[in-house]
Design a protein that fits this description.
Elements (H helix, E strand, L loop, with lengths): L3 E6 L2 H17 L6 E8 L2 E8 L1 H7 L8 H4 L8 H13 L4 E4 L2 H20 L3 E2 L11 E4 L3 E4 L5 H9 L9 E2 L1 H20 L1 H13 L4 H8 E4 L16 E5 L13 E8 L2 E2 L9 E2 H9 L5 E3 L5 E3 L1 H12 L2 H11 L19 E4 L8 H10 L1
Parallel strand pairs: 1-4, 5-8
Antiparallel strand pairs: 1-3, 2-3, 6-7, 9-16, 10-11, 11-12, 12-13, 14-15
Helix pairs in contact: 4-5, 5-7, 6-7, 7-8, 8-13, 10-12
């Protein structure tokens, strides 16, 4: 029974109790009939394997393509909370890799965090900039040694929302797309920690009052990556809340800072986040065409530095989307797995992996363990 979800228990009694909670949630969401459950006794305990029923998997996600699931089941994941939860559960249950969780509570937290990510990513609206540094001055301060840290007394959750989710007509703060994904993930994990693990929230608050965690270290502390270039995930397999990278396969335009690729979140319903125009999320086609036209839109600024003409990108994307012949030619070239890092050959913009947050609940929160190690 490859893929799906695996839970491990020290006793059959704990398995029975957790399975009862899971079945109650699936029944509430009206998906219980589509979930296969299998118990297996192992040395030191018992495992529970969860998977989407074969008929549902084949009809709803043929070839492990989850992009059309929302339309097929008439889900409104962008407006109805339970529809978003349905889409998360169904796609997780049909994962081609085995997703390991220590118990049902951690699995429930993972589902809620994904929901948080989708909502927060959809609300995030920023000013794209690769070098400018600005945040709301009433709750954030900056130094080269610490990055942006919280002014003491500024709650982490509220301060992240101020930076990323401006009120209508409010100031848009400058971010790179990768830093924006870090803020969305941090916010979404903190919201879950507030409900299920207050000690973790306190540690996150203390960390961001002292020194920001970013870039490679953020990935190590917070993220789990599924798939590899050698064993890629199916090209159209996405779960709402996945962090996704679309690579720029053009060597020349990838030299423009910030245009090496594009970091986004999968929102469900075939849509990906757009931090710069939050009311206009991308689909796979529009994202691929946008990245393709970066190669046609570079310009030199007054200092002789290579920059991107975003207005020209928009114009070229609109032209291509209106021309079926040009669209098919360009999309076929982009709609391939990416090359390895440093290689620009026949690969496209599609990545082999997806990323999601690590465990948050006590006693097995590897995020808290990693934070504690940093402090010590």
């Amino acid at each position: 029974m490859p893929g799906g979800i695996r839970l491990s228990f020290s006793s059959p009694e704990k398995l029975t109790a957790d399975l009862s909670r899971l079945r109650a949630e699936w029944a509430r969401l009206q998906i219980e009939a589509q979930v296969l459950c299998r118990e297996q006794t192992q040395p030191g305990g018992v495992s529970l394997y969860l998977q989407l029923a074969d008929k549902a998997a084949q009809e709803w996600m043929p070839g492990l393509d989850t992009l059309g699931l929302g339309a097929l089941l008439k889900l409104q994941s962008d407006r109805i909370e339970d529809d978003l939860l349905r889409e998360i559960w169904l796609t997780l249950l049909n994962c081609p890799l085995s997703l390991e969780f220590p118990d049902a509570a951690e699995l429930f937290s993972a589902v809620r965090i994904r929901g948080n990510i989708v909502r927060n990513a959809a609300r995030t609206c920023l000013n794209f900039h690769t070098s400018a540094i600005e945040r709301p001055a009433d709750c954030w301060r900056y130094s080269e040694e610490t990055g942006f840290v919280l002014i003491p007394g500024s709650p982490l959750i509220d301060s992240l929302k101020k930076a990323c989710q401006p009120e209508a007509g409010g100031q848009l703060y400058s971010f790179s797309c990768y830093r924006a994904t870090e803020y969305v993930i941090l916010l979404s994990v903190a919201e879950e920690a507030r409900e299920s693990h207050p000690e973790l929230l306190q540690q996150l608050q203390a960390q961001w009052e002292t020194k920001a965690i970013s870039s490679g270290l953020f990935h190590e502390v917070f993220m789990l990556e599924l798939g590899t270039l050698e064993q890629p995930l199916p090209i159209h397999y996405y779960v709402p809340g996945d962090r996704v990278w679309f690579r720029n396969p053009d060597a020349a335009s990838s030299e423009v800072a910030g245009y090496e690729g594009s970091w986004v979140f999968y929102l469900g319903g075939g849509q990906f986040s757009n931090f710069w125009k939050s009311d206009k999320p991308f689909n796979l086609r529009s994202k691929a065409i946008e990245i393709h036209h970066w190669r046609d839109s570079t310009v030199l600024d007054d200092q002789g530095e290579l920059q991107m003409d975003e207005i020209k990108v928009e114009q070229l994307v609109a032209q291509t989307l209106a021309d079926p012949v040009a669209f098919e030619r360009i999309f076929e070239r982009m709609h391939r797995l990416r090359d390895a890092q440093g290689v620009y050959d026949q690969g496209g913009c599609m990545d082999a992996t997806r990323e999601a947050p690590r465990f948050v609940r006590a006693p097995h929160s590897d995020i808290l363990q990693a934070l504690t190690t940093l402090v010590s």
